[in-house]
Amino acid sequence: MTDLLPTIWFILIGVLWTGYLFLEGFDLGVGMLMKLFARNDTQRRVLLNTVGPVWDGNEVWLVTAVGATFAAFPLWYASLLSALYLPLVMVLLGLIFRAVGFEYRGKARSGASRNRWDWAIALGSFTAAFGIGAALALTTTGLPLNANGDRVGGPWAWFNGYAMLGGAAVVLFCVIHATGFLVLKTGGPIRERALALFVRLLPAAVLPLLVWAAVVQARGDDAWTLAMLAVAAAAAVASWLTARRGCDGVSFAAMGLFLTAAMACVFGSAYPVVLPSTLDEAFNLTVGNASSSPYTLGLMSVIAAFGVPLVLAYQGWTYWVFRKRVTEKSIPPAHSVSAL
Amino acid sequence: MEALEIARWQFGITTVYHFLMVPLTIGLGLLVATMQTLWFRTGREHYLRMTKFWGKLFLINFIMGVATGLVQEFQFGLAWSEYSRFVGDVFGAPLAMEALLAFFVESTFLGLWIFGWKQLPRLIHLCCLWAAVLASVFSAYFIIVANSWMQHPVGAELVDGRARMVDAWAVFTNNTALVAFTHTIFGALAVAGAFLLGIGWYHLWKRRADGIDRTTTSGKVIAGGGKAIRGRTDHRVWLRSAQIGAVVALISFAGTALTGDLQAKLMFEQQPMKMAAAEAACHDGTGFSILSVGDLSADNRDSQNCDDIVAVIEIPGMLSFMANGTFDTEIKGVNTLVPEYQEKYGTTIPDDPVYGERAGTQVDYVPVMEVTYWGFRIMIGFGALAAFAAFVALWFLRKGTVPRSRWVMRLAVLGILAPFGANSAGWIFTEMGRQPFVVAPNPDPSGIDGVFMFTAAAVSPGVSVGELIFSLVALTVVYAVLLVVEVRLLVRYVRGGVASAMPELTEGSKNDGDDDGVSRGKDDGDVLAFAY
Question: The pTM is what?
Answer without folding.
Answer: 0.92
